[in-house]
Amino acid sequence: MTKTGIGPANEGIVRWLMTEGPKQAEPSALLHSFSLKLREAGVEVDRSTLGAPILHPIAKSSFVFWDIDSGPDQRWFLYTPDQLEMLKASPIHGIYTRGEATSLRLDQPGDRSRYPIGEDLWAEGYVQYEALPLRFSDGTHKVLTLATKSADGFSEADKALIEAALPALTLVFEGFIARNTAKTLMETYVGKRAGLRVLDGEIARGDGSYIDAVIWFSDLRGFTSLAQSRGDDEILRLLNDYFGRLTDAIEEHSGEVLKFIGDALLAVFPHQNDVRSAVARAEAAAMKVLDENKGQSGFSFGIGLHPGTVFYGNIGGGNRLDFTVIGSSVNIASRIEGLCSELDQTLLASADFVEKSSLAWKSMGKRSLKGVTEPFEIFAPVN
């Protein structure tokens, strides 16, 4: 694009980006408002995207899409062979890897045939497409794309206005990506609720609060002997499959996985004065796991459930902290799960849990739990 100087329209967009851009709720809102600002300045943008490779356990890239008819939409580019091939065949790949801009006049067959997206956009009525690199401070490149259905395409004045706005847009977008990366890392390694609390400033040892929740503790049975009889790759596959199914079920029912402890898992189903709801969510997640495990081979496991009040926050030493839950209820849930093997049951719960449950349970008798003064009556679901 050719620079021709910054006029009032350019200055207005840059000023808006620097003052109002960071206040937008999310990247989709930023792209929506930026695209409308371009249109107000006379640039007939009909379609736009903002994209960035990101740190995410599933997605390869996050991008927001906008068009004049449907508005903004958040989309994800996943780690799949088909989508990776699509990326390599697009102008976006050249920007991500080399910072190379692409300009396509879609009404010219030679231009639009350079990339598959050219033919697709032409079929939708677009006349010109621009893919522009946003150069971040760490040396990486993210991408802005713009397309128009105007028969004249983008004029040189349009291009100059867009280019003049790119540094400000890049600065604002980089701030969004940094925040999203931090949020993703917190959610991935700490948990969604705990991650948000850490990002909100609960980072000192002892920071936290007491919450009411159903505690879930689960553990694989015979993992040591299993590990000795299988190769490392197979063990990793089994563990990921096991943790994946449990995590999906827990999160589907509004629970939060707090930590993986070797082959064990600790989760909570928080509530505010509605223990029945938390019990219902926890037992629904457990039943889903049990149903999915029927007929599965390779490992068995136990789940212990117990409601109570726990401290939810930071513990640790010096500069190394862990956001977790602690309290007698956690210990009780762990001890209940420890009885699963002895009682040959996959799921066990306390009387306090069963009292609030709508399912049918059978008593397995009173049992002494290590570290607990009084014996606990333990229950298993009626098959």
Q: What is the fold's blueprint, element by element?
A:
Layout lengths: L7 H12 L7 H14 L6 E7 L5 E9 L3 E8 L2 H8 L2 H8 L3 E4 L3 H4 L3 H8 L4 E8 L5 E8 L7 H34 L2 H8 L8 E14 L1 H7 L2 H21 L3 E6 L2 E8 L3 H19 L6 E18 L2 E7 L1 H11 L1 H4 L3 E4 H5 L5 E7 L8 E6 L2
Parallel strand pairs: 10-12
Antiparallel strand pairs: 1-2, 1-6, 2-3, 4-5, 5-6, 7-9, 7-10, 8-9, 10-11, 12-14, 13-14
Distinctive features:
383 residues, Beta-Lactamase, Alpha-Beta Plaits, eight-stranded mixed sheet, 14 strands, 43% helix, disordered N terminus
Query: Structural class, judged by helices and strands?
Result: alpha+beta
State the domain count: 2
Residue stretches low in confidence (pLDDT < 50, at least 5 long) are 1-5, 55-59
Radius of gyration, taken over Cα atoms and rounded to an integer in Å: 27 Å
Give a written overview of the molecule:
The protein has 383 residues and is of the alpha+beta class. It has two domains: 8-189, GAF domain (Beta-Lactamase); 192-381, 2-Layer Sandwich (Alpha-Beta Plaits). The chain has 14 helices and 14 strands. It has helices at residues 8-19, 27-40, 81-88, 91-98, 109-112, 116-123, 156-189, 192-199, 223-229, 232-252, 275-293, 328-338, 340-343, 351-355, and strands spanning 47-53, 59-67, 71-78, 102-105, 128-135, 141-148, 208-221, 256-261, 264-271, 300-317, 320-326, 347-350, 361-367, 376-381. Strands 7, 8, 9, 10, 11, 12, 13 and 14 form an eight-stranded mixed beta sheet that branches. Strands 3-2-1-6-5-4 form a six-stranded antiparallel beta sheet. The chain is elongated, with a radius of gyration of 27 Å. Mean pLDDT is 84; it is low at 1-5 and 55-59.
